[in-house]
Amino acid sequence: MVAPLIAARAYAAVQGIGGPELAGAAGPASGPDFGQMVNTAISQAVNDSRAAESTMTAQVQGKASLVDVATAISSAQTSLTTMIAVRDQMIASYQQIMNMQI
Questions:
Q1: Taking Cα atoms as reference points, which of 32, 34, 29, 30 lies closest to residue 86?
Q2: CB environment 68-102: b (16+ within 10 A), e (fewer)
Q3: Cβ distance 56 to 65 under 8 Å?
């Protein structure tokens, strides 16, 4: 059985209410915002994809080498694979949170 005070502290910590004396926390964590990190990673994946497309276009026009195209495509593929893995982990985390007992 969970004591009411422990439950109140956990709820306050999640909601950020009641101040640090109730939540048992020293304050908000410092560091980059998670949303900003995800946004930056998505932007990087999009930029890598666009760079690969422009390198392919330049190669068709005879302005870039095939090695540059292969390198750009590999970079774009790595970025996309990383974003898919992050997306899968975020979905799995969300599902775990939704399945938690309250």
A1: 34
A2: ebeebbebbeebeeebeeeeeeeeeeeeeeeeeee
A3: no
The C-alpha atoms of residue 61 and residue 80 are separated, in whole angstroms, by: 26
Residue length, the chain?
102
Helix (H, G, I), strand (E, B) or coil at 53: helix
* Contacts for 89-93: CB closer than 8 Å, 24+ residues apart: 90/38
Q: Which two tokens stand for residue 83?
A: 């974003």
Q: Using CA atoms, how far apart are residues 28 and 32, in angstroms rounded to an integer?
A: 12
Tokens of 8: 């109140």
- The structure tokens listed for 35 are 């949303």
Residues 38-81 pLDDT 10s: 888 889 999 999 999 999 999 999 999 999 999 999 999 999 99
